[in-house]
Specification:
The structure holds 2 protein chains of 2 kinds. Chain A has helices at about 5-15, 20-25, 65-70, 75-85, 105-115, 140-160, 165-190, 200-210, 215-230, 255-260, 290-300, 310-325, 340-360, 375-395; strands at about 30-35, 50-55, 95-100, 125-130, 240-245, 265-270, 330-335, 360-365. Chain A has a domain at about 20-165: Rossmann fold (3-Layer(aba) Sandwich). Chain A is of the alpha/beta class. Chain A contains 14 helices and 8 strands. In chain A, helix 1 packs across helix 8 (about 200-210) and helix 4 packs parallel to helix 5 (about 105-115). Chain A has a 4-stranded parallel sheet with strand order 2-1-3-4, sandwiched between helices. Chain A has a 4-stranded parallel sheet with strand order 6-5-7-8. Chain B is α/β, with parallel strands linked by helices. Chain B folds into 2 domains: about 1-95 and about 240-265, Nucleotidyltransferase, domain 5 (2-Layer Sandwich), CATH 3.30.420; about 100-240, ATPase, nucleotide binding domain (Nucleotidyltransferase, domain 5), CATH 3.30.420.40. Chain B has 8 helices and 9 strands. Chain B has helices at about 35-50, 85-95, 135-145, 150-155, 170-180, 185-205, 225-235, 250-265, and strands at about 5-10, 15-20, 25-30, 65, 80, 100-105, 110-115, 120-125, 215. In chain B, a hairpin with a 4-residue loop joins strand 2 (about 15-20) and strand 3 (about 25-30). In chain B, helix 6 crosses helix 7. The radius of gyration of chain B is 19 Å and the shape is globular. The two termini of chain B are about 15 Å apart. The chains are: A alpha/beta, B alpha/beta. The interface between A and B is medium-sized, with 14 and 16 residues.
């Protein structure tokens, strides 16, 4: 299969948080708004004059200073974010929008204020922490909408004069939906038995859509979608088995590539920073305000294990099973950052129930933000692929 | 007669096995691994050829499978298979009654549940540190100024085991030195080390869902003191294998080669 035209460009964009498209948007006078969690609706950070940057720490090798502040018993992703902030990596941010969803990341974000990070470069910079509900009942969605109004819209309007009117929100939703349609259509290609793109390539595409200004990355994504319509895969599929990759934070395309190097095509990305959920269009129902629609959408589509009521817990397993069926997956890999309080339990649960209750063989991986023990991971993935292959052969008789 | 090779390039030892077409093991070798995995595999296979007059080079083998950490670097292998699958197969053809394996290699510990056809039913593996592995034992034996065999024999003399809290190689070494400094009996410290590793093996075996008869494979399977400690924590007798347990990965690889090479004919 020929290389995607923009693959190298996408890889370059992901090698630095302040990449060339971010620089361009800043030069155009736009405000960069940082966030790390799905509970902060991306669409609200893409109002006119603003753009969202989902926070990563590419190339980080050492978290010594962040570890001093947060202790080593915290997830390496949150420590890496703080370390990168201390290094000055997010000094271009106009604001950091945070939620009290994951305690460790929340703690990392609090240190932006405590250590006066970014503020010394931009005195208008602010960090805001919003409360996110644990249930998705109507009253909880209304509370969430109020939080979004108070912590995102009001702050942006008061500090930077951003237009947060109903019309502005509807325009942002429309643009957001356009990007979602393009990315989703690209992602749909993974359902094909001999697909014209790899899971690694899709991971790059999804990440650039989250880490670059939408209006600047969209033309590249559209071009990639057109390219995929005529891109010819090799005659026989390159993979041995197909897997759904689920779990917590994962912004490392090399992790996906490692799995695929072992013969498992990552057909669906149900993890934080993935597209499932994340790239569903937002629908504004009759009589609903744009903000209410956003709040409802992000609560309904959310697959975070922070929701612990029975309905949501079972719903997450059912969703994984449904993805496996839609994308023709043979197995499931659930990965989590070491010390991730939510996904640690969810991973163990999946390992216990997914095969016996849902017929989906499952493997669990506990990993660090920076993967150094690639050899051992490779052995585990390869062994899982071999086991899935044998099960597949047995099923086919 | 056709011959089939399996080459297991591990982090500390390289093992090679040659099977004839009936499945009989006609040659085997265990050598210290070199820095260069390709070189390790070549010298191990050459040593095997010296045991079979009919064989002179890898070209005389019908099919070769590479396994172990250096499996991608075995230049003459037709394919590579993970050591998890190979250990399961090696143990299965040695003793089909065995249903679970604890494989303690140079840099990792694995628990493997084996299906009735020798394939992997489930497995668990330590994530990255070398605690409870061959390298851990080497470091600890060094701090006792003993060989691994002497260390193992020493632990068997103990009437009690002093609990060792640290699992990390570096901290465990410090803890051992502190205990020696306190005048504690060396055999009881050694038994404590064996027990600490055995507990880790217990966790891996349980995580893999190991049930029924269990055996040990990998270099550390020869550590009699560890075997006894594992029997104690698992409360079952570990099944003895009729073939050197360190060869299980290479044997499984050779068996896969025999099946795949045979099927390809």
């Amino acid at each position: 299969m020929r290389d995607l035209k923009h693959r190298v460009f996408f890889e370059q964009l992901l090698s630095d948080v302040k990449n060339e498209l971010v620089e361009q948007a800043l030069e155009d006078g736009k405000l960069a708004l940082g966030y790390s969690c799905y509970f902060v609706p991306e669409v609200l950070m893409n109002l006119a004059g603003c753009f969202s940057v989902r926070m990563r720490a590419p190339g980080i090798t050492d978290t010594a200073i962040a570890t001093y502040y947060m202790s080593e018993k915290t997830c390496m992703y949150s420590r890496s974010i703080l370390e990168r902030a201390i290094e000055g990596g997010y000094n271009f941010f106009a604001a950091l929008l945070s939620t009290e969803t994951c305690a460790m990341m929340h703690r990392a974000h609090e240190h932006f204020d405590m250590l006066n990070l970014v503020k010394d470069q931009n005195e208008k910079f602010f960090v805001t922490h919003m409360d996110a509900p644990f249930v998705t009942k109507d009253y909880a969605v209304r509370h969430y909408a109020r939080q979004l109004q108070k912590h995102v819209l009001d702050r942006l309007h008061d500090v930077y004069g951003t237009d947060v009117s109903e019309e502005a929100l509807r325009a942002a939703i429309e643009k957001h939906n356009e990007l979602c349609r393009v990315v989703s259509e690209i992602g749909e290609c993974r359902k094909q038995m001999n697909p014209p793109l790899t899971g690694y390539e899709f991971h790059l595409i999804e990440l650039v859509s989250e880490c670059c200004p939408h209006d600047l990355i969209l033309p590249y994504l559209k071009e990639t979608l057109e390219e995929l319509k005529t891109r010819k895969p090799d005659e026989t599929p390159w993979y041995r088995v197909r897997v759904v990759l689920a779990g917590g934070e994962n912004d490392d395309p090399d992790f996906t590539r490692l799995i695929e190097d072992c013969g498992a095509f990552v057909v669906a990305d149900r993890y934080c920073f993935g597209s499932l959920p994340g790239r569903e269009e937002i629908e504004i129902r009759d009589g609903e305000t744009a903000l209410a629609a956003v709040a409802r959408h992000y609560m309904e589509t959310n697959q975070c294990p922070r929701f612990m009521n029975h309905e949501k817990v079972q719903g997450r397993k059912q969703y994984l099973k449904q993805l496996a069926e839609e994308y023709g997956a043979d197995g499931l890999i659930v990965q989590q950052q070491k010390f991730c309080e939510y996904w640690e339990y969810e991973r163990m649960y999946c390992q216990h129930v997914m095969e016996p209750d849902y017929g989906l063989p499952c493997m669990g991986i506990e990993k660090e933000y920076v993967n150094t023990s690639v050899g051992q991971l490779r052995t585990r993935f390869q062994a899982f692929v071999e086991a899935l292959e044998i099960k597949k052969l047995a099923k086919e008789g | 007669m056709r011959y089939y090779g399996g080459c297991d390039v591990g982090s500390t030892y390289t093992k090679a096995v040659i099977l004839d077409e009936t499945g009989k093991m006609v040659a085997s070798v265990i050598q210290r691994s070199k820095m260069n995995a390709a070189q390790s595999s070549q010298t191990a296979m050459d040593a095997c050829f010296s045991q079979v007059p009919a064989l002179r080079s890898v070209d005389d083998l019908t099919y070769i499978v590479g396994t172990g950490y250096g499996r991608n670097r075995v230049p003459f292998a037709a394919e590579n298979i993970s050591e998890i699958s190979c250990h399961a197969m090696g143990v299965h053809i040695t003793d089909p009654t065995v249903k679970a394996i604890i494989d303690i290699g140079g840099q990792d510990v694995k628990g493997i549940a084996v299906a009735s056809d020798g394939t992997v039913k489930n497995f668990a593996m330590n994530d990255k540190c070398a605690a409870g592995t061959g390298r851990f034992f080497e470091a600890i034996a060094r701090s006792f100024e003993m060989t691994l065999e002497e260390f193992s024999a020493l632990s068997l003399k103990a009437k009690n085991a002093i609990p060792i809290t640290a699992q990390c190689t570096v901290f465990a070494e410090s803890e051992v030195i502190a205990l020696v400094g306190e005048g504690k009996a060396p055999e009881e410290i050694a038994a404590g080390i064996q027990m600490a590793v055995a507990k880790r093996c217990f966790v891996m075996a349980k995580k893999a869902g190991a049930m029924g008869s269990i055996t040990l494979s990998g270099g550390c399977a020869k550590n009699e003191g560890l075997k006894k400690a594992i029997e104690k924590v698992l409360k079952i007798k570990v099944t003895e294998l009729s073939v050197d347990p360190q060869l299980m990965g290479a044997l499984g690889a050779a068996e896969f080669a025999r099946r795949k090479g045979g099927a390809a004919r």
